[in-house]
Amino acid sequence: MSAPTSPTTHEGEQSADHPSGTPATTTAAAPAPGATTAVGPTTAPAAGRTATVPTHRSGRWIDRWDPEDPTFWRDGGRKVATRNLWISVFAEFLGFAVWALWSIVVPQLPAAGFAFTVDQQFWLIAVPSLVGATLRIPYTFAVPLFGGRNWTVVSALLLLLPTAALAVAVQDPGTPFGVMLAVAALAGFGGGNFASSMANISFFYPEREKGKALGLNAAGGNLGTAVVQLAVPLVIVAGAGVALERAGLMMIPFILLAAFLAWRFMDNLSTAKADPRSFAAATRNKHTWIISFLYIGTFGSFIGYAGAFPLLLKGQFPEVTLAIAFLGALVGSVTRPLGGVIADRVGGTRVTIASYGVMALGAFGAIQALGSHSFGLFFASFLVLFVATGIGNGSTYRMIPAVFQASAVPGGALDGPTAVDAAALDEARARARKAAAGCIGIAGAIGAFGGFLIPRGFAASTSLAGSLVPALWAFIGMYAVMAVVAWAVYLRKGSALASAGI
Question: What pLDDT does residue 340 have?
């Protein structure tokens, strides 16, 4: 049988196909003809299903995978899925850690003898996000092409390139800036890992359990940013002097371990097939681009501030230890689920608009802190910013299923009288699910570009005005614009979707 299409969920938010967080840009196809199966216990299978347990062939491929069958799930499916999940969490955690490495290495470059300008330092922070965002969509399709286990091994081993290159480059203060920028760009491999990891895990779990599984997978990845910002400052100063090469070297044993665990214990599912039509459907829908714009303000702000925060602290308050910078990424990660929970109760648009308001207040507090050189106010203001980005991240993604389902039917109403018959309504909703699947993948990639825009905004502000203040005012203005767009399209009385309660 064929499993339903499910969109690739980014950063742990809820997806378009299932309120608890089902991902999908890919479709599970029927088992290959003649695939080997093992008959399970005598418990009667669900109607129309064959009770089987997972069986492997060469290369750890599984040809029959039916987690929606309770017997299959109980008699081996859950165990296999759980094993793949925890290895995926570890590999994705390392991906995020590598993606964020330069955010905490760059502030330490002057102490190691490098004489880069502030603008150049912000470039080194921004370029990994640019590359990682670009890689997200092709990484999504890598799992169906190569197999989830195989691609996890490959994507983990690819992390050796940025870590080894960093370890070499930072040992010579005479390394040209262009070379350093190329090495920093390699860290973008870590940003792409999230998309393939989420797509892979989505195939293993039944609809009723995907939310929890994907939430764990995403949370493990997100925490990599905070952990690396905590660990690197401690590791590089152990002993005498500043040994920046340790920032790369410390990751290599863990990367090799992740690749080994994936090779030895993970599985490929031959039933996983790509569905690029969901992306095509999404690109033709205006709401894809509206939500992607809104997502730049939430996830883009999170990844952008997380990358820039250590350098901002170093530049504005050099007397403060960088070891506390990890708290920003940490609170932004752990508050993300709250956005979806609150959005379920009061509506995703309202929560997203409120998050923009709180982000604006946080940025305004940072402006006041810079004027008075108050570290306490500056740090607290940025923690408020991070909390708001986390909540807004979850609520914006929660809007996607509601927006696409509501826009698929007359009047934007999901239930009640409509001008179409039941068959046409079901067809419209199916098209909406496919478009929403693509929207999740596209919005996740576009939103990640905020990780490039925010550091570059700070760089331009510093170069032109000698202060971070103009950039913060510009961000406040963008949050206001995004809030107005969200209200005008989804809440304003008389708008096409106002009655849907999005």
Answer: 78
